[in-house]
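Hey, why these numbers?
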Amino acid sequence: MSSPVGTILGGRYEIDEVIGRGGMSTVYRAHDLTLERWVAVKIMHREVARESEQLERFRREAKSIAKLSSPYVVGVIDADEQDQTPYIVLEYVEGQTLKQRIRDFKRLEIAEAVAFAIEIARGLQAAHERHIVHRDVKPQNVLLDEHGAARVTDFGIARQLNDESLTADGRVLGTTDYVSPEQALGHDVTPQSDLYSLGVVLFEMLTGDVPFHGENQVAVAMCHVRDELPDVQQLRPEVSTVLATVVDTATAKDLDVRYRDAAEMIADLEEALAVETARSGHITGEATAVFESLPRETRQRVGVKMSHPWRWLALIAVGAVIVVGAFAFIARNAQRGTGTDNARAGDGLTAVSLSASSAQAYDPAGDNNEHDDEAAFAVDRSPSTIWSTEDYLGGNLAKPGLGLAIDARPSLEARAIDIVSPTPGWSGRIFAANGSEPPPSIDDPNWTEVGSVPSATARTRAQLNTGGTAFRWYLVWIERFAPGQSTVEISEVFLYR
């Protein structure tokens, strides 16, 4: 098939023009003579078709995406071979790639970037539910249709999770600008690897550039293995901490910290879109359609109808005040989540950056209100701000205890905790649990004791034993006050992995 333009494949698809080229194939626009429509035809390069492994990978692409049914994935229509050259027929998407849009606009509107990330994540979720990992998520493989919606394409190096036939050589596949650390090292690739790459794509949409540059692809890949991504809020200060935390969690090197599945990342992206919408006071284009697809309770936090701007402009100001007020402190004090300022690593420990809203008071045997509004001060990385218990005269709690629960979402196998307290002498224990909320009682069997604080000092380090389990919640449980104490104060809590 030396001159495919004008060729009719399978007696049906008339090749019209080249619309894209890759290492394995060339993509053409073609006319479907049977259904009178445009399609995209990916024809494998003849020299590549001679390699049995590449031919199998190409065939597998067709089988993989033919199983998918999602508005966020470019679907397969047909697949066959002609003159010993395989080809795949896909939906024809009239529009540009996400990479082209980034080149045109540099940094995208924040709400638009989040909307695109949600749609990409939804496409990946559909693939992952079919046990298919894309392995090459990048803006070049995201098409923006005529309505502006993002659709994932080019599953050319995708493989099913249960297919081990082509992984024995351990070769690194994928584009190194977006490659996950485990993929760069030739380790097993999982859905979490796609989420890492999506996190890098989101970083690029927000900042206008990929996070790492190097002399060659290997150097860039090693940056993904060794180096933290640059702080997205330093590069673009108007990005909310909620959204910055999504980038951080998606691109975490530690798989216990990274999003475990697309559903978790989608939930946080939807929350971020609501926050960014309320902060900006308006959204346009595809972000509007994606906003309207969010869960009802998420949309209600903004409290507006985005489809009728003349009706909601006044209302959104109210929503913006509410949300911005809730996050103003976070935005002023947090960096890459809460950051790790004043942490004391060493001994093989690495401090973890927590969400700025991760701390909450825990008082199940009392009135469930233990200065809740001050809880964020325990993770704001400012020694001058303090969470304190209520005043208990004579130190008499008259209940089993109270404390602070720290959300290490999605989960963390913590090895140690530091508690900075201006009121030393109190004692207690450290518990851990999983679940969307902390267990409702300290006696709940879902709590696991992982450490103790026999007598708190100004800065107490408690070693934790999680038994190899990653937990979402870590509870500083205060059981006894020191003699003469009527309150306990905590200015900082640090978790280490």
The chain has 13 helices and 21 strands. The first strand starts at residue 8 and ends at 9.
